[in-house]
């Protein structure tokens, strides 16, 4: 059968869609009755549901299924039979009933919920299953004697909802002590705040006529309640301020600490020496609100998928080799001296020596550089490298916890590299704000000193109290934190809040083409002959499919999905040269797939169509090309047209210039269209722009673009699969949300305006309060009203404005 008969024509493409997942079927050869399926995996899921009377799944939502591809019968879940792993994953087990919670990112609609909560219909040994849609989690209770944990996972996977299990899940710990400490500090501050306010009310509303002994009693209670707030709840502000000053940095916690110290000690002084009420209520309110802001910021970072340690990226299990036998073991049981097998695209879990096979190691996970490094037998391979090619055998020389990647991660190298790119707005403002406040306080003290030292001291401390930048400190975490949640709802996930600030500063956008502007799925292929040569035979297609199966490149995946039939599993001397192509020995035949220059043949013509051309040779004989129609992402023309009016745009593509004329419909300046670009070329292009003082946003697919993504001021990875992305990027944009790129960038600029407006509100409160402070007439009542009011109003403004402008900019 030729490729042409399996690839649908335009009519087939528009009419035959998979009954299960809704994707276009490559052919109409897989069906049951009048229901067609894009692959055997989707058909298998349908058969499982039909057999168990669960086809109501399709009535709740149209084509709700997830494409499964070929159904794997491998043993990758063998590690779940290990007793240690079962104990670590289980929430509860009494020897009869076990309960476990899985993270399932593919949950997306009511059909998913309905099906996953009816697992007991498929297997009665599952006694209960419940879905938490917001967390994308599934809790399953099952009868241990009738079904194992491994069988539960295999069942869930067989219907298209493979659980996301990583090493971090097997290393469950109680919440960090620092998290618990923050909650305790907020609890102490909140309790003391409520009681001090209660004890202060008689002072406020008595008009000064409260009984002196009762006043003294309440004031003494206020001091007792304020002491734990000062020494315990406020401690992290003092530590942060001192740490900054040691490094000659005036951060936002310096003026905050000055305000806290002044409030506390002036209140002590006034209560003990002259019997006044002091400012204990303002003091504890300030600390309480600031701690709530820190909690909000912490929750924001916990929410982000990026905030994971190295264990979240490592495989849960590894293949251990003992002579001719191979077994799957949990990574936690891997130790020095073990012999392991690492296959194509698998991460090396621990520093090891290459024993057998040809290593071609991609260290982009560790360094951001995407060029794989060739390795020979006897070479040391570091943890975090990804094998690109055939399987290799390694001898582990260090435990996972002692490997290079672990040490690198724990030294915060990634974070330090990022921090060098940006100076925080808050700390920049704090530097000048602190100087101005101390100057005003000093001038006020000097002015009133001629009247009396007491009045001078009152004026000095009053300025420090009223100018404490609590509202200023709260504006950024609440604005950016709320914005991160809004952006995440729109399928745009940021590494941290500072990326919003960087996005607002961008003036140049660089796009990758394949997998970024083009869709990596739903496209057909067509054989293009060279000099009248015949089409590929079925055997040759099997050779081609076997080789592209080894590659994660979007073009390889598209060719593989378009070719039916099986594959040869024993691939020798596999090599992938980024930007050029792949080659290997398949069933004793040397197969090369890639650019015409790489394959060594003349360029195939693509007849001016919007297509990429992949050349193929077998045993060094040119056999022809596959023409892959490029389907550009919906909304691309609108996105490029809009962005072109505001930013300098450039396109970097590893493909040839065959689509240049088509791309000029989107990009007006042909001088900024670059083809035949290697990953290193892309990296150097970004560096060149930065040397010209450009603020660069790089948008790629996270495969061959890791170096450019990491080098750019902001790197966005456009991903079809949110669980597979380049760690060099700063943000992930789900492919379906690509049209929202316009609104996202507009919203980032708006965020900076919201921050400026919040700062303005804070400054206006300070200016108003300073009118009382410089005259030395700041009363406890004015302080108790003004300070909490300024903080709360800024919080309400920040959160309300982000929601309002998000809707205004077209975000949900």
Please characterize this protein's 3D structure.
It is a single chain. The chain is an alpha+beta fold. The chain has six domains: 3-60, no CATH class; 78-171, Alpha-Beta Plaits (2-Layer Sandwich), CATH 3.30.70; 177-304 and 422-478 and 750-808, no CATH class; 317-398, Calcium-transporting ATPase, cytoplasmic transduction domain A (Distorted Sandwich), CATH 2.70.150; 479-519 and 632-749, HAD superfamily/HAD-like (Rossmann fold, 3-Layer(aba) Sandwich); 525-629, 3-Layer(aba) Sandwich (Calcium-transporting ATPase, cytoplasmic domain N), CATH 3.40.1110.10. It is built from 29 helices and 28 strands. Strands 16-28-27-26-17-24-25 form a seven-stranded mixed β-sheet, with helices on both faces. Strands 8-7-9-15-10-13 form a six-stranded antiparallel β-sheet, with no helix packed on it. It has a six-stranded antiparallel β-sheet with strand order 18-23-22-21-20-19. Strand 22 (611-618) and strand 23 (621-629) form a beta hairpin. The longest helix has 33 residues, at 741-773. The protein is elongated. Mean pLDDT is 76; it is low at 1-14, 173-178, 304-310 and 408-423.
